[in-house]
Specification:
Strand order of the largest sheet: 1-2
Largest sheet: 2 strands, parallel
Distance between the termini: 57 Å
Structural class: mainly alpha
Radius of gyration: 15 Å
């Protein structure tokens, strides 16, 4: 029986030091990271993973999609609060 792949997460930050720090912390807890310097790069990879999925990339695509959904939701919430203030 094969071992399960470690969980995967997308790390998106424009600061290289922050990317290394977060990746190191997550790696120490058993997570594998897909690292991106910006949201467009992460989205580009998500599109590739969803249009040409491989068994290894499916969890990555799901993680990126979930993270992106949270970011967009949070940004929408902030924009709405600013408009109503």
């Amino acid at each position: 029986m094969s071992e399960a792949s470690p969980p995967r997460v997308a790390v998106v930050d424009d600061d290289p030091t922050m990317r290394r720090l977060v990746t190191s912390i997550l790696g120490g807890r058993g997570w594998r990271s897909s690292v991106f310097a910006d949201a467009p790069s992460a989205l580009e990879q998500l599109v590739r993973d969803m249009t040409h999925p491989t068994p290894e990339r499916r969890p990555s695509a799901l993680a990126v999609a979930q993270s992106l959904a949270r970011v967009l939701r949070d940004q929408g919430d902030r924009d709405h609060k600013e408009e109503t203030s």
